[in-house]
Automatic annotation (TrEMBL):
Gene3D superfamilies (UniProt xref): Malonyl-CoA ACP transacylase, ACP-binding, Malonyl-Coenzyme A Acyl Carrier Protein, domain 2
InterPro entries recorded: Ac_transferase_dom_sf, Acyl_transferase_dom, Acyl_Trfase/lysoPLipase, Malonyl_transacylase_ACP-bd, Mitochondrial_malonyltrans
One protein family per Pfam: Acyl_transf_1
GO MF term set: transferase activity
Residue span(s) of domain Malonyl-CoA:ACP transacylase (MAT): 71-311
Protein name: Malonyl-CoA:ACP transacylase (MAT) domain-containing protein
Span of the signal peptide: none
Organism: Strombidinopsis acuminata
């Protein structure tokens, strides 16, 4: 006989949601009782000791984290009409109003109307993706609040790491947006010369891809750069470098049987030595914001180390 916490169900499982529909059960789990069709009785525990002087209840422990991780996208995931479904959420409206004052342009108008070529510009795209990621959090908060308030881990790809840190409370929306704007401007400047590109490659082993990157760079002569920029998943990578070398890599990867070799919608050879000038500028900016940073409310996995920073 299985034990479900109530004798009345015998050897049968109770109906889905039964446990949380009991009076007070949802609240004890940190959830909204109304979502589970239950009445809430916040006075129940206090009444238990009514008339018993000298007895005090300890504070309710904070609800434990749920097995939920939130992952935020980076540059290259943008598209015209993005944020259409979240534009009327009050918290998003507030962010958009603040963003216009910081960035100097209408973020929502650009997202909804484009043009796509403008949305792809690094100095525009990165702040917009930062805002869009946080807007997604607000949409999720309305649909399933505990997935936001009780998530266990956060992470983000490249620019998305800043979104994750902001969502974890490490820095404010305003500080985060200013950081991202400066990061984007520095990376845009570093990407101006020589012409650069990125390539998503899937289906090849890392040693083989490293070999192909070297071949591509060699084929384009002195000054050419082509290297793995991101390790995304087993046999899944982003490569970056000077544009002719990256295009040469695409052809080599296709011929080697890659499942995918797709040029990304970015304007720079990000996460390579081509970004060294931007790295120096961003380091100084981070040092300025550092005194205002706080401990994250949950674990945030970092791109460079694949290790978490914890509360």
């Amino acid at each position: 006989m299985k034990q479900y916490g109530c004798w009345e169900w015998g050897d049968k499982a109770p109906p889905k949601g039964w446990f949380l529909s009991r009076p007070g059960a949802a609240r004890k789990q940190g959830l909204d009782p109304k979502k589970y069709g239950a009445e809430d009785f916040p006075e129940a525990e206090e009444d238990l000791f009514a008339g018993s002087p000298g007895i005090s209840l300890p504070a309710m422990p904070s609800a434990p984290p749920l097995p939920i991780g939130l992952l935020f996208p980076g540059q290259g995931s943008q598209y015209v009409k993005m944020m259409m479904s979240v534009k009327d959420i009050p918290a998003v409206k507030d962010m958009l109003a603040k963003a216009e004052g910081i960035l100097g342009f209408d973020v929502l108008k650009l997202c909804l109307e484009g043009p796509e070529s403008k949305l792809e510009e690094t100095e525009v795209c990165q702040p917009v993706m930062f805002i869009a990621g946080l807007a997604g959090i607000e949409k999720l908060r309305l649909e399933r609040e505990e997935a936001v308030t009780r998530c266990q881990v956060l992470a983000g790809l490249s620019l998305g790491e800043y979104t994750a840190l902001c969502a974890a409370g490490v820095f404010s929306f305003e500080d985060g947006l200013r950081l991202v704007r400066k990061r984007a401007e520095a990376m845009q400047a570093a990407a101006q010369s020589p012409k650069q590109a990125m390539l998503s490659v899937a289906g090849l082993d890392k040693p083989k891809l490293v070999e192909l990157c070297q071949q591509a760079a060699t084929s384009e002569g002195s000054g050419a750069i082509c290297q793995i920029a991101n390790e995304l998943f087993p046999k899944g990578f982003s490569c970056a470098g000077t544009e002719p070398a990256v295009l040469a890599l695409k052809e080599l990867a296709d011929n080697a049987g890659a499942l995918q070799a797709k040029v990304l919608k970015t304007s720079g050879g990000f996460h390579t030595s081509l970004m060294a000038p931007a790295q120096e500028q961003l380091g100084k900016l981070l040092d300025e914001v550092l005194p205002n940073m706080k401990t994250p409310r949950c674990a945030v996995y970092m791109n460079a180390t694949a290790a978490p920073i914890k509360p």
